[in-house]
Amino acid sequence: MQVLSRWHDIVRSGDPSGLAEILAEDCVFWSPVVHRPQAGRDLTQLYLTGAMSVFNDSFRYVKEVVAAPHAVLEFVCDIDGITINGVDIITVNPEGLIIEFKVMVRPLKGVNLLHAKMAAMLETLSA
User: Fold this and answer.
1) 71-123 residue pLDDT tens
2) Is residue 115 within 8 Å of 125, Cβ to Cβ?
3) Using a CB cutoff of 8 Å and minimum separation of 24, what contacts does 39-48 make?
4) What pLDDT digit, counting tens, does each position of 41-72 carry?
5) Distance CA 28, CA 85 (A)
6) What is the pTM of this model?
7) Cα separation, 127 vs 123, whole angstroms
8) Are 10 and 18 in contact (CB under 8 A)?
9) Which of 9, 44, 76, 123 has the most CB atoms within 10 Å of its CB?
10) 8 Å CB contact between 89 and 102
């Protein structure tokens, strides 16, 4: 699960340019606010880049459970005075690349805030 170390480096740096190196071409992203999976490296990279822009300096991982090829990383952050708690569920393929990235978030107020902020950020990134 060496890819997790690289993922943590990318998150710490706030620089999404290394995402393409750790995402499988057929990676699937599961958003907490979009009902369909987003298939492919490009879409996964777009969503993760948007999330890195929306989450601020308060974002931090507080727990990590690894049972290869899966990892669950619990995070906490504060956005606009709302404490958001969630998990990133990551699956890695035999080549050591992320093949699935699923995000779950709570509370509902936080989900709604993230939905609005991510929609605005994705619109900016897609333009």
Assistant:
1) 999 999 999 999 999 999 999 999 999 999 999 999 999 999 888 888 887 77
2) no
3) 44/19, 44/98, 44/101, 45/16, 45/19, 45/20, 46/122, 46/125, 46/126, 47/118, 47/122, 48/16, 48/19, 48/101
4) 999 999 999 888 888 788 999 999 999 999 99
5) 22
6) 0.91
7) 6
8) yes
9) 44
10) yes
